[in-house]
Amino acid sequence: ESSVLLCLKKRFHRNLIYTYIGKILISVNPFKDLNIYSEDVATEYQQGTLSKNAPHIFAIAEMAYTLSQSSGQEQCVVISGHSGSGKTEAAKAIVQYLTMLYQGSDSHRIRQPCNVLPILESFGNARTILNDNSSRFGKLLNVHLRHGIVVGTSISQYLLEKSRVVFQAHGERNYHVFYELLAGLPVEQKEEMYLQEAESYFYLNQGRACDLLGKEDSQDFLVLVQALEGISLSDDQLSSTWAVLAAILQLGNICFTSYEKESLEHAAIASDTEIQIVANLLCVSAELLHSAVTHRVTVTSYDRIFTPLSVEGAIDARDSIAKALYYLLFEWLLLRINEWLAPWESDSAVGIVDIHGFEDLGVNSLEQLCINFANEHLQWFFSQTVIAQEEEEYSQEQLAWIPISKMYSKSCLDFLTVKPHGILCILDDQTSLTQATDHTFLQKCHYHHGNSPWYTKPKLPLPEFTVQHYAGPVTYQVHKFLNKNRDQLRPEVLDIFSQSRLKVISHIFQRAKAVYCQQRELGGRRKGLRPQASTLVSKFQQSLQDLTAKLRG
């Protein structure tokens, strides 16, 4: 390994950021612009092979394109690496190459995916302690082809980090779009939406990093508006988008007090100002919204029972609404982007997998566990693919092949996922139990995995555990694990926003309500058991299985 690292270092200092190891391309992030992505450079790689030219991401793009045409099957380029290693920039370069060289004479009809990137970056990227412009969602970008010509693109997203909307660790920021909105929206519109400075919002000031050196939020807002107008969003839809973001910020400033009644703690809203502003911005009932953050509704055959929430429960209810508003807005924008980029009929495609990089942040929660689980999964798939290629080469050379024992990463995957006691299985089981807590989940993990080589209990009685990943140990804090894994909105909240007088709001919540009802119906058929909505972990695992099946072809 030391000789490989030395080779990479020497090449890097000569601005040679790409290196082949077999058919694998290693890319080292230069953190500066290099003049190696022009159309002139791209044409050098057209119809070339890996050995013909110097190592380059364009060569990988060309190889994927050539295979898609010769085999008639979709090809996928998998980009993996730690957070901040340049995965998203590599994905952009592949798309740039294909759309630059393989468009037909009527290329003006092809809508360029690069035009929507400002939307994805503003709504999907944020500053972390590892990366000032970190992608907080994974994506599969498909470049669709017909008779060898690019005819359109489509984007699928995986695991948007919803918790960032309501919490950021020290030195981190919320999603870029909030700061861009506050810096770039005209004064009159800011006043109409009751907007103030970023530092005045709890959802923005927790990380104490509202300003980001080298980022011009006001200029980026203008670029964002242009991109949103470019996908044909109307003035009303733009206003609704800003209203959702403004309402989220107001939600974060709702404070609660407590009082005791019948020996139970009850939450009360300290001031009605913010709840009224949220209701005005989103055109919903302030009274119903007030009830939604202070009470839980249980529907029986005869009545609706309102149960007061504690202050902690009220904060969770408030944050749940904020996260849902942002996630559903993000999904709606992605739907509009895909409608705008929609391909004509295609006969092949090149897919680019760009998922979150392996992470070890200041505070690691369920999102980081899912991200690192995904990286374990792709690392295992990558290792199996490389080993299969090596075995095939040995066979062709008529050399003896010694089978390789069970892979390290696969063992860690089993520890995380195998029923009944994989970490993620325990989490799903605990999530389905009414009386379960983060503490009971942690105790179950300690009990079943205390002696596992992949698991380390804390030396002190802390609410955390450590997993020995392929890239190193990561310690996870279990606070809110169960709450995050439930990943569902209460029916009364769906009802409130489904009745909004803003078309965008009512539309996105009616779609969410339809999905919720479908999940309840499917759950209700399961041996007469209580209907269960899909958990965050189970949905993410299914997405990874689908992605792996796609990669296998």
Give descriptors for this structure.
single chain; 553 residues; alpha+beta; Kinesin; Methane Monooxygenase Hydroxylase, Chain G, domain 1; four-stranded mixed sheet; three-stranded antiparallel sheet
What's the total count of β strands?
Answer: 15
Query: Measured on Cα atoms, how large is the radius of gyration?
Result: 25 Å
CATH homologous superfamily title of the domain at 2-163 and 346-354:
Kinesin motor domain
Structural class: alpha+beta
CATH class of the domain at 2-163 and 346-354: Alpha Beta
**Would you tell me the overall average pLDDT?**
91
Widest sheet: strand ordering:
3-12-6-7
CATH architecture of the domain at 2-163 and 346-354: 3-Layer(aba) Sandwich
* Residue windows where pLDDT falls under 50 for at least 5 positions: 527-533
Estimated helix fraction: 40-55%
From the 3D structure, determine the CATH topology of the domain at 2-163 and 346-354: Kinesin
The coarse silhouette is globular
What's the number of helices? Answer: 21
Strand content: 5-15%
The major sheet is characterized as: 4 strands, mixed
Q: Calculate the terminal CA-CA distance, rounded to whole Å.
A: 32 Å
Family: Belongs to the TRAFAC class myosin-kinesin ATPase superfamily. Myosin family.
Keywords: Actin-binding, ATP-binding, Motor protein, Myosin, Nucleotide-binding
GO molecular function: actin binding; ATP binding; cytoskeletal motor activity
Pfam families: Myosin_head
